[in-house]
Amino acid sequence: MSVALSNRFQGGKAFGLLKARQERRLAEINREFLCDQKYSDEENLPEKLAAFKEKYMEFDLNNEGEIDLMSLKRMMEKLGVPKTHLEMKKMISEWGC
Q1: How does it sit in the membrane (predicted)?
Q2: CA-CA distance, 6 to 10, in Å (whole number)?
C-alpha cells in the first residue's frame, strides 16, 4: 500500500498521509485495549495508551508496525543513552527478540 502512496505523492504529503494512516490504526488498537475487560483495572489506561501511541509514532517512521534496529538506535540516542550497532544487537539478543 505504501508503494501506491509513494507513486501518487512525494515528500511531506506522502509522509503526512502515512502518519495519518498510522494514527488511525493505532487509535483502533487503543480502542480495543480500552474495551477489553482484562485491562479495566489498569490505572490511567487512556493516558498510558495515548503516551505510548505518541512515542511509537515518533520512532516507527515507515509505518511497518515494528521498531527496527535503526529506529531503536535513534530512540536510545534521544533518551541520552547512545549505543553502537553491536551494543544494540547484543541488547536485542539478550531480550530474546
Answers
A1: Peripheral membrane protein
A2: 6
d(CA 70, CA 81): 14
**Residue carrying C-alpha cell 498510522:** 22
Summarize pLDDT for 1-24 with one digit per residue, the tens. 444 444 566 778 888 888 899 899
Query: Cell 507513486 sits at which residue?
Result: 7
Residue 7's identity, in one-letter code, is N
Residue 66 is given by DSSP the state S
Rounded to whole angstroms, the Cα distance separating 82 from 57 reads 20
3-state SS class at 6: helix
Q: What is the pTM of this model?
A: 0.63
